[in-house]
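Honest question from a wet-lab person: if I give you the sequences of every part of a complex, can you actually get the arrangement of the whole thing, not just the pieces? Trying it with mine:
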Amino acid sequence: MTIDRRDFLKGAGVAALAIAAKPALDIVTAATLPEESPLVGKRWAMVIDLRKCISRKNCTACITACHKTHNVPDFGNTKDEIKWIWKEGFEHAFPDQANEYPDEALKNAPAVLLCNHCDNPPCVRVCPTKATWKRKEDGIVMMDWHRCIGCRYCVAACPYGSRSFNWRNPRPFIKELQPDFPTRTRGVVEKCTLCEERLAKGLLPACVEACEEKAMVFGDLENPDSEARKLLAGRFSIRRKPALGTQPQVYYLV
Amino acid sequence: MNDRGKIIFGLVVFIVIMTFPLWYNIANSKATYRPEPEILTKGVPGKEQCVLPTLEMKEQHMNLLNRWRDTVVRDGKRVYASPDGRKMVMSLSHTCMDCHSNKADFCDRCHNYLAVSPYCWECHIDPKELPR
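Yes, you can. This is the full assembly:
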């Protein structure tokens, strides 16, 4: 096949246009940022299926994923421990399930715990600087580490042990720094933020994504069609220390 | 009392010695030294223009960063529309550092000269700082 002068010029013209249009194209592709398609809900909550969770013994996938994503340090001792999501024996996690003869399977297996993102959060009420607050739009109990002065009132107020204080500089104790997320500094309280930075990019929380048993379901309780609502409608669920009136938003299917 | 000459000579010597550091620094242009941030993006297509015009960035970058911080953390809004109609993610370690990846010669040089110590990097991570 031979190319005549006319076709050659046509081809050259198209190529020149493509080269000229590249900067413009770059701007167009840059205009669709991942932050422009967030996950939006009115009342985020977590439903954890304890049966599924305990079916995999000694699994710490959610904890590892969360702590790696959020640059959570490991000081190697419980006194300085920082935890966003952790495991605790069933009887300690749910002390008001005062059954002398609880279900053997549950009794002997640890429950996975995280910040309950309460509807009526006591930590928020005591914070003197509004470094922690409940987001009106989706119910997440947020933290502003820029504003935290380290008074630890919230640590004392939280009945679930969800808040940890950085007694030491955490930087040297983070195994693998994630540049996408800040670390904290000495003198600041931290806790789970329900991965609000991932929701903003349209991603599920890191723990939910990491769970291979699909034992953790994240969803909007204001939406009657959400998977979380359907699970709660179909099975008996408990919450931690409901008598305190904090209205925790992490539900456990037992 | 005829030591006028000696006294004046002594005074002149004294003044010259006392002000010597000033002259010396002017002579070798140390006194007029002013650090300039090193811009890596000059002439790089698509990166010539910072978020705001250069003069505004020089004067207002700290306020812009504070505003970005508050908008992202407190209001949960992450996309910034610049006055010239571009959209960008309000992120220090990404949007800013993607272009100005030379923290030492871009941020620290002037901050050190002016003896200001912003605490951004006590928590935020300069991607270059990561051990490889």
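Two things worth pointing out. Chain A has one domain: 42-253. The interface with chain B takes residues 23, 26-27, 30-31, 33, 35-36, 71, 135, 137, 142, 144-146, 177-180, 182-185, 196, 200 of chain A (CB under 8 Å).
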